[in-house]
Amino acid sequence: MGLQSFEDGLSRMFEGVFNRGFRSAVRPIEIGRRLVQEMDDKRTVDSKSRRVAPNHFVVRLHPKDHDELSDFIGPLEVELVEAAKEYAKEEGYHLRGPVTVSLTTDDSLKSGRIGIDSKIRTSDSPVNEGVLAVPGGKVVRIGEQPIVIGRQPDCDIVFDDPNISRRHAEVRVAAGEFTVADLGSTNGTKVNGVDVSIARALRDGDIITLGSNSIRFEAK
């Protein structure tokens, strides 16, 4: 029941977005199936006899396949997260922290193949490093200097989007906490769909939205 229900739900989720002229060697439903298999294969039993499943996933694709999915990666990751949470609920799996799914490139894979790395990550795991996953597979490490996002060419992350201000937002780390702040942009900055009015702390898997673009924060 669980797997079939998962696939039916995933098909409904992707029907509107991915069936409009979508062409790729890797189908979203196949990524979903592999993610479910990973949850089943890597589940463990804890001291309270709970079945604990992985909640942190990195999906590896050939660069060509990743590029063909580039316009859909943001919504695909969001839908995979929701589908994985639903599957865990149906199967009675315990998740020790929020579910995160990220798609990245792997030159060692053949086109059409899918690789998945997963682990169990607790919500209170110490954060030693933070990165920003940008559409297109780029990953930007957050160091001592703030990461400025905007339309201006000298920004650290540049988007060619008229809805994004020249210097739109910045992400920084201080005292071990990663935060995002809007820099007085015209159209505002959101985290998980909520407007950012003051500097907001980031948690693993948070989605930062600027204009029509989304960036995912990942804690390492």
Features:
26% helix, alpha+beta, six-stranded antiparallel β-sheet, 220 residues, five-stranded mixed β-sheet, single chain
Largest sheet: 6 strands, antiparallel
Uncertain stretches of 5 or more adjacent residues: none
Major beta sheet, strand line-up: 7-6-16-15-12-13
Q: Approximately how much helix is present in the residues?
A: 25-40%
Query: How much of the sequence is in beta strands?
Result: 25-35%
DSSP helix count? 4
The pLDDT mean sits at 85
Global geometry: globular
Class per helix and strand makeup = alpha+beta
What is the H-and-E element order? HHEEEHHEEEEEEEEEEEEE
Q: How far apart are the termini?
A: 34 Å
Count the E strands: 16
> From the alpha-carbon coordinates, what is the Rg to the nearest angstrom?
18 Å
> What oligomeric state do the depicted chains represent?
single chain
Explain how this protein is built.
The structure is a single chain. With 220 residues, this protein is an alpha+beta fold. Helix content is 26%, strand content 30%. Helix 1 (2-18) packs antiparallel against helix 2 and helix 1 (2-18) runs antiparallel to helix 4 (73-91). The longest helix has 19 residues, at 73-91. The radius of gyration is 18 Å and the shape is globular.
